[in-house]
Amino acid sequence: MQDFKLDKFQIQAIESSEKNNSVIVSAPTGAGKTLIAERIIENCLQNNRGVIYTAPIKALSNQKFRDFSKKYPQKVGILTGDVSINRNAPILIMTTEIFRNAILTEPQSFKKRDWIVFDEIHYLDDIERGTVWEEAIILLPRHMKMLALSATIPNMENFLGWLKKIHSFPIKAIIENTRPVPLHFFFQCDNEIFYNFSELKKSNLLYKTLKKPSYQERYIFSKPNRIKNLLREISSKNAHPCVYFCFSRRKCEELAGETASFNFLSQSEKDKINNLFENLLRKFNIFSSPHISFLAPLIKKGIAYHHAGLLPTLKEIIEQLFTSGLIKLIFTTETFALGINMPVKTVVFDSLSKFYGRYHSYLKTRDFYQMAGRAGRRSIDKEGFVFSRVNPSHIDISSLEKIIYGEYEPIKSQLNSCYATILNLYKIMKDTIYDIYPKSFHFHQSKPWEKKTILGLLKRKISLLKSLGYITNSELSPKAILAAKVYSFELPIGELFGGRYLDSLDEESLFILVTSLVYEPRKGERRPKLNKRTKGLKRQLNEYTKIIHKNERFFRIYPLSKKFFFHLSTASRLWFEGISFPKLSQLCYTDEGELVRYFRMSVQVLREMYSSEVISDSFKLKISNCLTKVNRDIIDAEKQLRQQI
Question: Could you tell me which CATH class the domain 477-642 is placed in?
Answer without folding.
Answer: mainly alpha
